[in-house]
Amino acid sequence: MAKKGRLFVISAPSGAGKTTLIKKLLKKFAGVSYSVSHTTRPPRPEETHGKDYFFINASEFEDMIDADLWLEWARVHGHYYGTSRTFVAEQLKKGRTLLLDIDVQGAAQIMASGLDPVSVFIMPPSLEELGRRLKNRGTDDPRAIARRLENAKEEIRQKHMFQYVLVNDDLETASAQLCHIFEKEMETS
Predict the structure, then answer these.
(1) Does a structural domain hold residue 1?
(2) Does some domain include residue 29?
């Protein structure tokens, strides 16, 4: 019988450094599959369709909701985000370790799905620092940044749902902590 794959869910408020930490993790653990989510938001300049996200329109996304093709989905910051049910099932069935980069709403859905994921929440050092990072990212107007900061407060209040919580106040330290969690959980699977 083939070994069942392991599922990792990593979540954080927008701007906490989740994507950077995940990229570092994926460089260290070459055998890990990354689940590319779907979204209806427009791509940022550095993002590539099929690599960072599958960029689709709202009508396509809603059709997939109606067909029950999402393992999890949510509307965040005015856009839909979702994870393909089929993709996750296929990867786990093949015995692959799969990493999901999703928001808190999606993480809660995955944790309630019966798939028993390892869950990690990445905290910013402070809301002030988070605001600075969002501003420096240069992808959002002041109103969008304010909305992201309000959402971050609610997301941080839900950190207790996660098995692990780490603070990204120093990138190298946070990266080492995330890799340690990953190694520890892979040993126990």
Answers:
(1) no
(2) yes
Q: Hey, which bits of 4-60 come out as E strands?
A: 7-11, 32-35, 38-39, 54-55
For the entire predicted model, the pTM comes to 0.86
Residues 6 or more apart in contact with residue 2 via CB below 8 angstroms: 93, 94, 95
Is residue 79 helix, strand or coil? Answer: strand
- Per the domain annotation, does 48 fall within a domain? yes
CATH of the domain at 66: 3.40.50.300
Per-residue pLDDT tens over the stretch 48-61: 999 889 999 999 99
Which residue range forms the structural domain that includes residue 119?
7-187
Dihedral sign, Cα of residue 18, residue 24, residue 26, residue 28:
negative
Alpha carbon distance, N-terminus to C-terminus of the chain: 15
CA distances to 12, 79, 81, 171, 189 from 106, in Å: 11, 13, 9, 25, 23
Distance from C-alpha of 7 to C-alpha of 88, rounded to nearest angstrom: 9
- Count of domains for the chain: 1
Examine residue 97 and state whether it is found in any structural domain, yes or no. Answer: yes
pLDDT digits (tens, 9 = 90+) for 122-145: 999 999 999 999 988 888 889 989
Instruction: Name the pLDDT band for 3 (thresholds 50, 70, 90).
Output: low
